[in-house]
UniProtKB/TrEMBL annotation:
CDD domains: beta_CA_cladeC
Classification via InterPro entries: Carbonic_anhydrase, Carbonic_anhydrase_CS, Carbonic_anhydrase_sf
Database matches in Pfam families: Pro_CA
Keywords: Lyase, Zinc
Stated family: Belongs to the beta-class carbonic anhydrase family.
Name of the protein this chain belongs to: carbonic anhydrase
EC assignment: 4.2.1.1
Matching Gene3D superfamilies: Carbonic anhydrase
SUPFAM superfamilies, per database record: beta-carbonic anhydrase, cab
PROSITE patterns from the UniProt entry: PROK_CO2_ANHYDRASE_1
Length: 222
């Protein structure tokens, strides 16, 4: 499979958003979801994007972006929090599979963000390993509040931006690929009711980031 490897980061971003537009308007094409595709990619995968998203059941990447088998290399954790396994998986998608785009996908009504806010405001810290998720989201919530961003959607956007920045900061593979122009790392904020994905963070694309006043609009390629 070579078609996805030929895509630039901008091409990959435009392809992703075109699928989201089809999903929003109720005209999905369900590409690459048949027996021919299944057989074609069995020997080798060549996804065009790494998608690191929240594990929320309403955030199924292939549906939201109207894609199919072999298109997206998906990594998901609650609240899109990172650990070594996540970083290694994303680096694999970039360095081994050749994905030209890495997307961090967050969403409104995020349970991990809500739990973190509750822990900070009311001392309701979860038990077990859920507590670890809350602890990893906490820096984003504190950063949002320090900047005067207190609305739920503003906090979610801050967490997405923080995750994107952490990826680039912690991964030499991503930083080097960014510097060489081989990959872009972006953050999208998804609205559950509308189905729209809004750009809130961009490393390597140069696409205008949407402002809070137009969060209902989907992101658009330049």
């Amino acid at each position: 499979m070579t078609e996805n490897r030929a895509l630039t980061p901008g091409d990959a971003f435009a392809t992703l958003l075109a699928g989201n537009e089809r999903f929003i308007t109720g005209r999905p094409q369900h590409p690459n979801q048949n027996a021919v595709r299944r057989a074609e990619i069995a020997p080798l995968q060549s996804p065009f994007a790494v998608l690191f998203g929240c594990s929320d059941s309403r955030l199924a990447a292939e549906i939201i972006f109207d894609r199919g088998l072999g298109d997206l290399f998906v990594v998901r954790t609650a609240g899109h929090v990172m650990g070594p396994e996540v970083l290694g998986s994303i680096e694999y998608g970039v360095s081994v599979l050749g994905c030209p785009l890495v997307v961090v996908l967050g969403h409104d009504s995020c349970g991990a963000v809500a739990a973190t806010c509750a822990a900070l405001e009311e001392g309701l810290t979860p038990t077990g390993y859920v507590r670890d998720v809350v602890e990893r989201v906490t820096p984003s919530v504190l950063a949002a509040r320090a900047a005067g961003r207190t609305q739920p959607d503003e906090i979610v956007d801050e967490h997405i931006r923080n995750t994107v920045d952490l990826l680039v900061d912690r991964s030499r593979v991503l930083a080097d690929s960014l510097a060489a122009g081989r990959v872009a790392v972006v953050g999208l904020s998804y609205r559950l009711a509308e189905g729209t994905a809004r750009l809130v963070a961009d490393h390597g694309l140069g696409v205008p980031v949407r402002t809070p006043g137009v969060e209902e609009e989907p992101a658009r390629p330049a």
